[in-house]
Design goal:
about 110 residues; mainly beta; four-stranded mixed sheet; about 0% helix
């Protein structure tokens, strides 16, 4: 693919540790364009409604970085260990990249 590039994340997993139900917990995954073409983050989706990812809107120039913010907001019914996946779709050779979050929800 002529327009594809490569990317690297600063981490592939984030552990929020112990969190309370009905609280906003935020983390940032930094994504760097390690290729030679602009990196376009086409879509970022979460495996459940309790997780809200926010993607960079503008293309990321080669050598530059931007952030994907992930807010985890557990519902009162979600107790104990929670693991969720955030799927990042980009113009890379392997289009799909998976990020993982984990938290332990307790009152």
């Amino acid at each position: 693919q002529a327009m594809s590039t490569t990317l690297e994340f600063d981490k592939l997993k984030h552990d929020y540790g112990d969190v309370k139900p009905d609280s906003d917990n935020k983390t940032i995954f930094t994504v760097t364009n390690t290729g030679t073409k602009p990196l376009i983050i086409e879509d970022v989706s979460a495996s459940c409604g309790c997780t809200t990812p926010i993607k960079p809107e503008a293309p990321i120039a080669p050598g530059e970085s931007d952030v994907i913010e992930v807010i985890f907001h557990p519902k009162p019914s979600q107790l104990n260990e929670i693991k969720k996946t955030v799927t990042v779709t980009a113009n890379t050779m392997e289009k799909i990249h998976l990020l993982e979050i984990r938290a332990f929800v307790k009152e």
